[in-house]
Amino acid sequence: xxxxxxxxxxxxxxxxxxxxxxxxxxxxxxxxxxxxxxxxxxxxxxxxxxxxxxxxxxxxxxxxxxxxxxxxxxxxxxxxxxxxxxxxxxxxxxxxxxxxxxxxxxxxxxxxxxxxxxxxxxxxxxxxx
Length: 129
What we know:
- This protein has one helix at residues 7-18, and strands at residues 2-5, 29-36, 45-46, 55-57, 66-68, 73-74, 83-91, 99-111, 118-119, 125-127.
- It is mainly β.
- Strands 1, 2, 3, 4, 5, 7, 8 and 10 form an eight-stranded mixed sheet that branches. A two-stranded antiparallel ribbon has the order 6-9.
- 24% of the residues are buried.
């Protein structure tokens, strides 16, 4: 699954690279799960409740305009039904924060009470084209 840049991040890239505007990258970025997909403008419906929390994301070094998750990324066990996960996003904070990237899942995943959501190493692809 390849990700798309958010409008927010597109503006940061233009301002930073082409207008010499300062930008401090986040120390940590987080994966968020969505039951209704967002768009480049954000939105969508992020999972809430049932012990859900965003997960810190680690990425491989970029090569050929792409990066992916380094290592498996496993969310906490759901203590209630989270619904059917259709998309993910990368944000710059554990809650709230700025929307950076997003993508639809290749295969939707129902996460019910007692289930865990997991992205195997290399499954989250982020590319800039």
